[in-house]
Amino acid sequence: MRFRIKLETAIFACIFLGGASSALAQQKGQYVPGQFGLNAGVIPDPGVTYANLALNYSATQLNNASGNSIPGINGTYSFWVDENIFYYVPKHKFLGGYFMPYIALNYANGELVANITGTNLNTGGGGSGFADMYVQPINFGWHLKRADVNVGYAFSAPTGRFTQGASDNVGSGYWGNNITSGTTFYLTKNKGTSANLSTAWEIHGQKSGTNLTPGQAFTMEWGLGQVLPLKKDMSRLLQLGFVGYDQWQVSSNGGTVTVAGIPVRASRIPYYSVHALGVQANFILPAKDLSAFFKYYDEYHALARPQGRTIVFGFSWTLRIPRPAAQTP
User: How close are the terminal C-alpha atoms of the chain, in Å?
Assistant: First the structure.
């Protein structure tokens, strides 16, 4: 029994110390929660849109499969991801909706400082550089009477630096496939109050240099928001709301991992999950097609993974094509 407990602790420590030192290289999936919240189903106006999203995750607690902090493992784990996202929406409709492919070019910076009480294991790691690239070649959005909806397919390309066993990785080392959806349902006729939901289903390939295939994951993000006019002519808007995310591993890992020289079936690693609540604020200038956002999430429950907090902020701007006709004041 003591060996089993030590082995379980060693597995978690291996994941935490060996994999968590980069932004996107953990045994957990490639998708980092916190991407969506309010306006999850809304797509940009026809034209070219640039969005910048900066996400910071930090944790000082590593939980076991029961959701309890693992005693004896102390340290900090944090990373930044800066996402540069380019959308294109043609003016012509397809299948009754709009085609909206996009690509995200990501720069990551991660850091880990940790030690295990009662051992001489005291480690640190980190890396920075261009991370995995996210491409959504198929994405369709529809404007309905009381809702905006989009569905699509995306893939994550392992363009980030990855070497098995290295402590400065910034890539996952494997390909990923994602089935996504987003819905914004308007609770009031003037569309000021909305309920939002986005989903992402991840299917992973085999990690480079190993026989390990991370298990599939499902992420759900939601939000409930209210728009408040800052000027009577609606030229400046403030949107406030509550947001949250939930992520689960939904299939077992394939292959093996080596812990203290002992090969262990990856399927023995417990399934991870995490749940968070937070708030979001958006500042919107409709006439200029410009908006800025800020989100804060606190993770209140996590299994077999770190538990911490997420901060997200950024902006988006659309160059409309064609340009809208000038309106009479």
Answer: 78
